[in-house]
Amino acid sequence: MQTRTMSVAEWAMLLALSVLWGGSFFFVGWALRDLPPLTIVFSRVLVAALVLFAFMILSGRRVPRSAGLWRAFGVMSVLNNLAPFSLIAWGQQQTGAALASILNATTPFFTVLVAHALTSDEGLTPAKLAGVGLGFVGVAAMIGRDALAGGGAEALMAQAAILGAALSYAFAGVFGRRFRRMGVDPVTTAAGQVMASALLLAPVVLLVDQPWSLAAPQPSTWAALACLGIFSTALAYVLFFRILSGAGATNVMLVTLLVPVSAVALGVALLGEQLRAEHLFGVVLITVGLTVIDGRVFRLIGRLRPSRP
Fold first, then answer.
1. CA-CA distance, 243 to 247, in Å (whole number)?
2. Rounded distance, CA 162 to CA 115, Å?
3. Residue 227: CA atoms inside 13 Å, Cβ hemisphere, count?
4. Residues contacting 46, CB < 8 A, separation 6+
5. Are 261 and 283 in contact (CB under 8 A)?
6. Is the dihedral of CA 191, 163, 171, 106 positive or negative?
7. Residue 287 and residue 289: Cα distance in Å, rounded?
8. H helices of the chain, where?
9. pTM (two decimals)
10. pLDDT at residue 177 in the model
11. Reported confidence tier of residue 25, pLDDT bands at 50, 70, 90
């Protein structure tokens, strides 16, 4: 069985998610000027957990009590938060936001392979491979050759770390499908995984970074952490799990192809960066790639094509 076609509402949520996660690279880069990676990751998941649990209480949802469910939240927190957030924040010290976003855009490649190996309903198809390939070429075109320049062992390790984050996201997408079968709604799933992340990371941050010994961050850094936790994590994961529960792991991970588009758009709108021809070319390729994977347009053309007498 193939992954089902996403609805218009799911595509809209996917686009919104790409903007929220595209902004995360900017916020992380800003916070790295004052804080070490682990402290940034801990602040991100702690703010998100507080926001989501407050929303759960206000909306009348019950805090889960099942030990099995919290074990699942713990595994999800490692795959979807702790490992990728830490690897990206550490790698972004060497690569910067642009290259980090293009490396993160390899997630659909890994997701297609992981989902094919571990699920029965998200098998590998030529359309998926072709669509993801076109999308990745579009991402590469948007970032440009200059972003891939640079070398040395540290740069190579940083790039490998971000690729490791992409692989971790792929496993998270497949693992996270179980929460729908367990009857857990997207808000509770998002809240549970970020709270588990905060609880698991707290002793590590206290031991390694010793936050009390760090210089006080600038007000802009506090603002970046707040935006990172509230918008790029709390709100983003509600959308992520809502799409995942309905459209599957392969579809939801297409967001990583859209994230660099959002990152470039945010740079143009908020930072005064220049929109270049390769950006427009990349958007076209990504759009074509998503169209190929979705398949809706091609099925419509097939139905409209007159049959032979």
1. 6
2. 20
3. 19
4. 198, 229
5. yes
6. positive
7. 5
8. 8-31, 37-58, 67-77, 83-104, 107-118, 126-143, 153-175, 178-181, 186-208, 219-229, 236-247, 249-252, 255-271, 277-294, 296-304
9. 0.79
10. 87
11. confident
